[in-house]
Structures are given as structure tokens and as C-alpha cells.
Amino acid sequence: MIRDCYIIENQGCYIVFGFPHRLANLPERENQNNVTLLPDETSKRQVALLDGTPVCLEWIAFDPATQKHLGEFDEYFDSLRIGLLRNELLYTTPLQDGTPGILCMQPSTDFDIGQALKVDFSNEGDEIAFVMKTNNPSLTSVLLEKVAVRDLMVFGSKEHPRYFTKILTPPSHEPPSLCLSLNMIGPDFCSGANLVLGTTSTKVDSGWRLLVEIERKLLTLQDKLGKNATETAINHGLVLRHPVAFKEALQQPPSRCQNLSCPPDDVVKLLEDRLRGPFRFSYTTYRRDNF
After folding, report:
1. Pair 179, 135: CB distance under 8 Å
2. Of 179, 187, 273, 285, whose CB count within 10 A is highest?
3. Lowest-pLDDT range, 109-123, 180-194, 220-234, 249-263?
4. Which of 130, 123, 220, 147 is closest to 181 using CA atoms?
5. Are 286 and 179 in contact (CB under 8 A)?
6. Burial 83-107 (b: 16+ CB within 10 A, else e)
7. Contact residues for 97 (Cβ-Cβ < 8 A; gap 6+)
8. To the nearest whole number, what is the mean pLDDT of the chain?
9. Mean pLDDT across the stretch 230-258?
10. 218 with 130: CB under 8 angstroms?
């Protein structure tokens, strides 16, 4: 509930949230709502706690003479001015250096909070740094175990083999999703790769049967790190650091694959049907988004 709204000339617009109370009944407390907006050129957006509730503060520059934003967010600024501020004359909330702008507050979204908590990582010196992310840690653990014991199938030519495995999951309303990615940074490159290339789900009496296609890089990566170390790095969002030569080592063909079996006919049909089927795009929300 909005209690009061004040517009103070040359100082800005302030909205006071809360329910009306007698001031005498309110306990005295220290103000803990100080916020520092992160530096940017023409706009700033920062998640802050207002009495323990996450909100999103946004400051955007504008020219008081023209009442226009002169940066790259002009359309967004106009939508604020016309919609939120009802096209009224704008009063400035200047930065400490005097740059004029307006300050808005709105509830923070999951995206805002995720961006605020996201951890960027970088390599140090002559090394590569990488992280692995998954949206389903429990299924990833099953996948890593199958990779460790080579409970896999191989399909395609010797020059371009494709690796698959089957995973059975308990009954559920929707088939489970499984994504696993690798983000890597080196002295002169930044790359990303999907370690799970795709899944095809079939409903069976005991639940769901997932046919998972695996990037061969996952086999080599886990052989070098070990199954337990790989799983720990995924579950805890660890940044792993290795010499630059480690990147080239991941391009080598995986070992212990000479005795893998070919998929049965029903699996081959599933693969062919997937290639002929419509393309589906989905946005993946990872458990830990370090990059």
C-alpha cells in the first residue's frame, strides 16, 4: 500500500510504502536502506533490500531541457515517461557529479535477483578457467555414472561418432529435462559448449525413458578429472583452472569406446524421427549460473 507520494522540486520524486500507523507507536530504528548504484554510462539498475524486501532501483539519465533520454535506451525511457510517469514534467534525481536523471523503484524479478547474484569468473595468467552447469543435478549424477562405466551406445561413422545412453526416471506429469553445459575462458578466447546435445523422452510403465545424446568432450573431460571431482564441480559451481594445453586435450577422441554397442532398431528409429521432427527452442534455467 502506498502511504504518501511526495514530489520535491529539484530533488526528485519519493514514494513512501506501508500502512498508516500512529508515529508514536513505531519503534525507533537505525536506517539500513542505504544503496549505492553500480557505475554505468547512461543507466543504472540495482537490486536492493528495502526493510528486507528485494526491490529494483533504476536510475536513467535525461536532459531536463528536452525531457528526453539521450542514450541508447530512449524507447524504454519514453515508455516510463508516458506510462509510469504519465507524461508529467520530470524532476531530476542527479548523481553526485550532477548528471541529471530520474530514479524509479519497482519490485525485483527473478531475473533481476539472478543477475545481481551471478558470479563472473576469469582466467588468471597463462591458464584456462571453466565451469559446468546443469538444470538437473540428480539426473546429471546418473549420467556421469553411465559415462564412467561406459554404459553407452555409439551411432554414426567412425569419423563422426555420436554417443548415447538410456536413463529411466520415475513417473511424473512431464518428462524430466536434462541440460549440461561447459563455459571456458582462456588468455585469448571465451567459449561455451553443451555437454548434453539433446534428449528424447518416451513414456513407459515405470515412468520415462530418456535417450540422451552426449558430447564426446564430456567423456574425455570426466576421464581427466574423475567422476567424483566432475560431479562436485557441477553441484557446487566450482571454477576449475588448468594449463592452456588442457583445452587441446579435450579435443582428443575419448578412450575406452572401442567395445561400445550400436543402438537397437527402436532407438535408431527414435533418432531418425527426432531429426525429421520440428525444432523446439527452450530457455534453460540452471541451478547455478556462474557465467
Report:
1. yes
2. 179
3. 109-123
4. 130
5. yes
6. eebeeeebbbbbeeeeeebbbbeee
7. none
8. 78
9. 92
10. no
Is the confidence at residue 272, as pLDDT, over 70?
A: yes
Question: Look-up: residue for cell 508515529?
Answer: 23
All structural domains of the chain with their residue ranges: 2-117, 127-276
Residue written as cell 557446487?
236
Judged by average pLDDT, the poorest of 153-157, 183-187, 273-277 is: 273-277
Give the per-residue SS3 of the chain: CEEEEEEECCCEEEEEECCCCCHHHCCCCCCCCCCCCCCCCCEEEEEEEECCEEEEEEEEECECCCCECCCCCHHHHHHHHHHHCCCCCCCCCCCCCCCCEEEEEEECCHHHHHHHHCCCCCCCCCEEEEEEEECCHHHHHHHHHHHHHCCCEEEECCCCEEEEEEEEECCCCCCCCCCEEEEEECCCCEEEEECEEEEEEEEECCEEEEEEEECHHHHHHHHHHCHHHHHHHHHHCCCEEEECHHHHHCCCCCCCCCCCECCCHHHHHHHHHHHHCCCCCCCCCCCCCCC
Check: CB of residue 278 under 8 Å from CB of residue 103.
no
According to the model, what pLDDT value does residue 20 have? 41
Residue-level pLDDT at 226: 96
pLDDT at 225 over 90: yes
pLDDT at 91: 67
In 3D space, the residue among 262, 224, 219, 214 whose CA is nearest the CA of residue 245 turns out to be 224
What's the grid cell of residue 270? Answer: 527414435
User: What is the grid cell recorded at 31?
Assistant: 536506517
* Locus of grid cell 519514453: 78
Give the C-alpha separation, 25 to 178, whole Å.
54
Q: What is the number of alpha carbons within 13 Å of residue 163 lying toward its C-beta?
A: 23
Mean pLDDT for 194-215 is 90
Distance between CA 222 and CA 230 in Å, rounded? 6
pLDDT value of residue 35? 52
